[in-house]
Amino acid sequence: MSADTLTTGFRRPAGRLAEIYAKMLRHPSYRYLLLLLGAPVNAAVFLLYLHRKRQSGIGGRREALRKRLVDEGELARLTEEARGQLERKYAFFNQHATSGRLEQESRELAEERFRERLNRELVQETAGDPAATYAGTYGELAGNPLFLGLSVLFGFPMYLLMGVYSNPYMKYIAERLLMTVFVIFGVAFLVFTILYISPMNPAANIIGETATAEQIAAFNKLYGLDQPYLVQLWNTIRGILTFDLGNSFQGNEQVTAAIANKFPVTLTLTAIATLVSVLIALPVGIISATRSNSFLDYTLMFIALLGLSVPNFWQGLIFILTFAIKLHLLPATFNPGNWLSMIMPIVVLGTGLTAAVARMTRSSILEVIHEDYIITARAKGLSSRQVLWKHAMGNALIPIVTVIGLQFGGMLGGAAVTEKVFNISGIGSYIVDKQFIPDIPGIMGGVVYTAIAISVVNMVIDIVYAMADPRIRSKMRQY
């Protein structure tokens, strides 16, 4: 294979790379990441760009173009036009502006428009010249196999970022993962700061009221509570980064291991409660929507309203009194080895979710079935079932998925009341127990877990949005 053939084979991918590169440079958020991750490559491209710019005289062409436009009276015309627009604006809003202020604002607005006109003219004059733009210089260099190979070697993170950016779905997920990281550390910072300024004294609460000053000082030194705020904050952030939050103050158990042991219990109960709730709520909401304002609709929505109104702790206590103590049908407390002990906690957890999803399903479908495209589908002769499942349900899913996701994330974060009522050793009861000490490592572990759980659920919701609604997928491709 000849060198010319090899070079020609690189032109197509090089053109695609140049297109992605130029698009990322126009995006404020990605521009700095691109320049940072590919610093060696970008430095070489920038030096060559400056060299060619000096040789080609683009700077001189810009000044000559500016002088020509000024001589033609373009700047004066734009200034006069801006002054007239500002005068009309002030007159419309009954505002008064001094002549000096009016002159300054007119000049600033005219200069901005003049720069835009100058840039457009310059782009037209230098079209096809790779030295005219920084991205064009990179595109020309990327067509060289030797440069492309070396740039991948020295700027692999940059090309990895470009690969993610070029795929709309990968970019969509990556942006939400990055947002999740910011949420986690933002929540960690806020919670740690609140605990730090809290008047509660962990050492006195754990050792007891009879603790001496020497014992409290030794406790604080052992756990680093005598260090400055920034040092303690950094140690906490570093523990999150390394997945090592240390040992809890009470019981001296490793926080990461404790969270890992309690997570499956909460996840199992939450997942089953959510699944059962959705299987019940969706048909109830659909039936109510299709038979709106009927006796059945009023009955189902009244029951749903009761489900939203009943407090979890009261419902749990009534269940224990009725089914455990009086009827002896179910265990009063949770036991992982006995599936019967899961029934009451699942029902209590799922009651509110079932009611919320049922009401949201009804209102969402009622809103959709009155749209013009539904009327058109019926006019074409489609059956009510086809209209409902093929046209209405898909467009009504977005708010329904939102409610399910938020409720699921909230329960994953720890349904503390339900866990306390049924003596479940889950995340919610763990955080509550640690809060009153306060056991800072334990609380931080629970909070970080909760932030991760809710963020991941929200990211899954966003992905489900794209799967359910083609309009969102279209926007993702255009973004």
How would you describe what is shown here?
The protein is mainly α and 479 residues long. Helices cover 80% and strands 0% of the residues. The protein has helices at 3-26, 28-37, 39-56, 58-71, 74-92, 99-125, 134-142, 145-154, 156-166, 168-197, 202-207, 213-222, 229-241, 255-290, 295-309, 312-326, 343-368, 372-379, 384-412, 416-421, 427-435, 440-468, 470-478. Helix 1 packs across helix 2, helix 5 crosses helix 6 and helix 10 (168-197) runs antiparallel to helix 22. It starts with a helix and ends with a helix. Residues 1-10 have low confidence and may be disordered.
Output the keywords.
about 475 residues, mainly alpha, about 0% strand, disordered N terminus
